[in-house]
Amino acid sequence: MKNFAEMFRRLDRTTKTNAKVDALADYFLQVDDEDKLWTVALLSHRRPRRTVNSKLLRAWASELSGIDTWILEESYHVVGDLAETIALILPPPEQDYDHTLTHWIDYIQQFAGYDEEGKKEAVQEAWRGLNTTERYLFNKLITGNFRVGVSQKLMTRALSRATGIEETNLAHRLMGNWTPNDTTLEDLIHSESATDDISRPYPFYLAYQLEQPAEELGSPEEWQAEHKWDGIRGQVIVRDDEVFVWSRGEELVNDKYPEYHVLASAIPNGTVIDGEILPYRDGQPLGFNVLQTRIGRKTVSKKLLKDAPVVLMCYDLLEYEGRDIRKLPMSDRRELLERVVAENDTGGVLQLSPVFAFSHWDELAAERETAREKFSEGIMLKRKDSAYRQGRKKGDWWKWKVDPLTIDAVMMYAQRGHGRRANLYTDFTFGVWDGEDLVPFTKAYSGLTDQEFNKITAWVRRNTVDRFGPVRSVKPKQVFEIGFEGIRKSTRHKSGVALRFPRMLRWRQDKPVEEANTKDDLEALLATYGG
Amino acid sequence: MPLLTFNECGIYCERADVYIDPWKPVDRALITHGHADHSRWGNKYYLCTRTAAPVIRYRLGDIKLETVEFGEVKTINGVKFSFHPAGHIVGSAQIRVEYKGEIWVASGDYKLEDDGLSEAYQPVKCQHFITESTFGLPVYRWTPQEEVMADINDWWRQIASEGRTAILTGYALGKAQRLLNGLDTSIGKIYTHGAIENTNEVMRRQGVKLPATTRVTREINKKEYLGNIVVATPGAIGQPWVKKFGNASIGAASGWMTLRGARRRRGADRGFVLSDHCDWPSLLEAIDLTGADNVYVTHGYTAIFSKYLREQGLNAVELHTEYEGELAEIETKGNAETEKENLAADAE
């Protein structure tokens, strides 16, 4: 773990891509294959399962350090990270254990067979022999939420440098359904054929948000335009008479969407489709709210299938007749995709995402304005001669989203943030006027610059009215423009509405607090867009 | 009536009609040390230690100021006042107040570790202790200064070997001089930000020994900085001023660097945990050493820290004051001090 901790410290110290890749590549050259594989797994969200809940962890840390749990809790609100809080409050280590990362992960995986007392002894024993950074990492591993600011792309680049295997090839091999418990680095990255795991998906190609005017993209004839569907990105694979459905988070979601099982026999083997998992009925998409009733459900009841049926809105074809066709131009792939959808009877499970005919950008802009009414988030633009690339790359694919809905709201409560915003007030509750009173209706965390967060933190400290644990109520003085993607009725929220993706667009320091929006304004938005 | 009370102007002794570190203008102010939140403009009369005076005069200009030696007793209307080392910065004092057997100590800002520049902290017995709690949470625990300075010098050596410039930040009064004092001058030359060099000059004149430093000016060729170190104020980072150092590595020295979030937010390449305030264990040790039963917590994590002290059986009260502790190193406040620092740098 010493190498791992040193690598983590190096990653943590820099925001520069090259320095991160250097740190990772150096590390990969130092450690054995087992540690390499676990590191790859951790950096690609294949974390060991959580074996201890955080409540127990707090109690054991409190016991070992002689610090009461209430003050540990207060410290946690300041630090913004439980694993880090515990690492910092524990007394200095009595020993200095030097074991591999794999050793510690095995150690943690064995907890599953221990009773509570056994787990406690094992955890406290580890704490006694690890330094602060190592303890932090160990805590992250047991709580199952290890995250570090390095993308899969950078990790792949570093591993490529350390192993000599070409990067795109490596990226493809690291996809799919594996854990270090059931494979070796040798099998995963050195074995001959990349299709030996028949469920292995292709890396998704992701689009950038279009910031410049669409006209600057050049001639409309070069571009394919379609809806930006408001569902979940998915990749459906049919190989060897089996179907595999992957979500963009590289999660295998076969069980959640039984609608797709029919595809195993309905479309030919060696077909991989990129599309949107979309709630859909009678030729119309249903809102994202409807899909939300299915996210997170492992087993799906008959009623749910009836109330929230999904289709695959198909927009790209990656494998055809067993051949990887990602290098073909978009227009050719589109033609083959149309053939796959047209020639096979899937009972409507596969829907073809329509393309807009347009000869001028203005026509498209008009289409985009009405997107929200069609449960679409805007328009996707894809260059007709583009290959299907990996990850987020600029140039060929753009998402041209509809402008967010907005409302001017008053800050009512503030709470400290987490992670790199620890100890800063970044989590706010906002209200709108209802006569003389403010009614809270949403929280928002993001959208301000670091400098603005610094400034508002100083303001919150000096304008606190009351404290409720970690939450402070503040004087109703500050107005923020809140942007959001959708609004719907909610019985769970006091205000009766729930917003989708609320964030702060601007701090309206120019706006008097009396001029913020009202509950009536909010209800008018609900009536128009609440579906 | 207690000997000291707290009102809208500051800590007040009615019997002697004096304030300690007032935040609004008053007739007579006893000052613990020269940081801006403790020694403010506009008082008609100031009293501080002899070694704290030069910086206060430099900052506040033409003021009526008298000085005392550490330990010297000054009696005002029967109340005995004496100043005792607080170990925070050069000249910083805890102010002891005694009348008819009632003893208070207002400690201002303080730290227990001897930094080699400030007069080393001495515990003072009292019944009533006024304390800060800037780092009053158990997550804050410092490593000894020598280890931190060794880390800083290792970092500088590494950056110098790459032919780059190291920029190290700490505020202009106190932290900066402590850093200068710990730098290994065999690695290279030390350059300083204007606001820091101004303070250095004041301190050198009063006999404080500091290593040789060169003020950063426009006339210096940019290449001269390579391999050397620049000690700068936290506020200078992110300003156009730092651009002249090219591909420099930035290190920040502050107690806040304990937290990963603060390290990442700071935009520094390296965070070094070094503070002129007490960490959690030394706050508790200091309070214990005073023997006081009554503790008044003025700034920092006041609510949490005073609750903890009450659980330990002390009469601890949380106060609302306008002291800021080390906030300047975590917030960009646009306050007078930061603006003055930036002006000092821009002038060059």
TrEMBL record, chain A:
Its EC number is 6.5.1.1. This is DNA ligase (ATP). GO terms for molecular function: ATP binding; DNA binding; DNA ligase (ATP) activity; metal ion binding. It is an enzyme of class 6 (ligase). It catalyses: ATP + (deoxyribonucleotide)n-3'-hydroxyl + 5'-phospho-(deoxyribonucleotide)m = (deoxyribonucleotide)n+m + AMP + diphosphate. Gene3D superfamilies: DNA ligase, ATP-dependent, N-terminal domain (1.10.3260.10), DNA ligase/mRNA capping enzyme (3.30.470.30), Nucleic acid-binding proteins (2.40.50.140). The keyword Cell division applies. The keyword Secreted does not apply.
Automatic annotation (TrEMBL), chain B:
Coiled coil: none annotated. GO terms for molecular function: RNA endonuclease activity. This is Putative mRNA 3-end processing factor. InterPro entries: MBL, RibonucZ/Hydroxyglut_hydro, Xnuc_lig_assoc.
